[in-house]
Design goal:
CATH superfamily of the largest domain: Vaccinia Virus protein VP39
Strand content: 25-35%
CATH class of the largest domain: Alpha Beta
Strand order of the largest sheet: 1-5-4-3-6-7-8-9
Number of strands: 18
Order of helices and strands: EHEEEEHHEEHEEEEHEHEHEHEHEHEE
Shape: globular
Length: 362
């Protein structure tokens, strides 16, 4: 049996190497050293997905190296996962192994937790889920005190709810978020708080209005609203837009509108290339945009979106892939200079780095 542990003693040195690599990579555009935001060395992941390895009539949590899907690593403990994930893992597995109905053809288990102590467990099967499964799952749900969700092909059984509720304290305020299973949320809660706090500090003396692209469930949008007169945000995922609308109401925000558009579509809309029915209630000409916030997927900004954001006086660019951020910076540096530079260590003990830039028009 394997236990997934990390050597926390090495973490400061690993993080320093990341910071040096990032500084060197961006050295052609700034002399600044990145502001470094470290992760907790353990229990930092709020969500985890495990394959379920079935052997000898017993289920085990397992992980695989990429490309080696017939060589499972059995997981008894997952110290990078939140403390709540580690508390729930053995309870769920014991219940599964005590019930043939819950164990049979189970191939994956997912845990979604929050810093504020909420959790959702998703069990995924290679079989149709029936009334017997639902009865067993409800019994497990009552025992755990957290909701269970069942999935199989073309099936999703929600016994109570398919989301968790997060409460993030940032500075002297606290923000409430609905986070739906299967939609994107920041996996490292402490780094999420650091990213929002840094963005708020960057924007604390702002004037005018904010445009945000790729806003998700309003993770950055809602806390930043207090620093701007009006905020317009876009997101292509319908689930995330619906969550964002609920989060707006939960946080009492009144100066924010969210529309379901891709960044490419919004670029066409603001350039008046074509109208969009989803913008019929939005008067784009009424906004006085001073700042644009972008947090794109790993591919970075497409050419047209990059050209569009270059028209803004200030660009706040959060990136999960500094390589594509650098590619965009080749163009953006023609009109803007780097004023703030940050490293967010979302995934310790890996080569993955997330970065933040504040770009100000020259």
């Amino acid at each position: 049996m394997a236990i997934h542990r990390v050597n926390t003693d090495d973490y400061p040195a690993q993080l320093q190497r990341k910071a040096e690599r990032l500084r060197e990579a961006f050295s052609a555009y700034t002399d600044l050293r990145p502001e470094v935001f470290p992760s907790p060395p353990e229990h930092y992941r709020l969500r985890a997905e495990f394959k379920v390895w079935q052997e000898g009539g017993r289920a085990h949590y397992a992980m695989y190296r990429q490309g080696e899907y017939k060589k499972p690593f059995i997981i008894d403990e997952f110290t990078v996962g939140s403390e709540l994930i580690n508390q729930l893992m053995p309870k769920v597995l014991n219940a599964v192994n005590e019930s043939e109905t819950l164990r049979k053809r189970l191939f994956s288990a997912e845990f979604l937790t929050t810093l504020s102590g909420d959790a959702l467990i998703t069990l995924i099967y290679h079989k149709k889920l029936d009334d017997e499964w639902e009865a067993e799952a409800r019994a497990l749900q009552a025992k755990l005190g957290f909701p269970i969700l069942g999935r199989s092909r073309k099936q999703k059984i929600v016994l109570e709810r398919d989301y968790v509720t997060e409460q993030l304290p940032i500075g002297d305020k606290s923000y409430r978020y609905k986070q739906v299973e299967g939609s994107f949320t920041q996996p490292n809660g402490d780094i999420c708080r650091a990213m929002i706090g840094w963005a708020k500090d960057v924007c604390k003396d702002s004037a005018g209005d904010l445009l945000e692209l790729y806003c998700g469930n309003g993770n950055f949008t809602i806390p930043l609203c207090e620093h701007f007169d009006k905020v317009l945000a876009t997101e292509v995922s319908k689930v995330s837009v619906n969550s964002a609308q609920e989060n707006i109401r939960a946080n009492g925000v009144t100066n924010l509108d969210i529309v379901r558009l891709s960044s490419e579509e919004f670029t066409q809309a603001i350039d008046k290339v074509r109208p969009f029915r989803r913008l019929k209630e939005i008067d784009l000409d009424s906004y006085d945009f001073s700042t644009v916030l972008v947090d794109p997927p790993r591919a970075g900004l497409d050419k047209d979106t990059c050209a569009m954001v270059a028209r803004f006086p200030r660009i706040l660019y959060i990136s999960c892939n500094p390589e594509t951020q650098l590619e965009n910076l080749q163009e953006l540096s023609k009109t803007h200079r780097v004023e703030r530079f940050a490293l967010f260590d979302q995934f310790p003990y890996t080569d993955h780095t997330e970065s933040g830039l504040l770009l100000v028009r020259k």
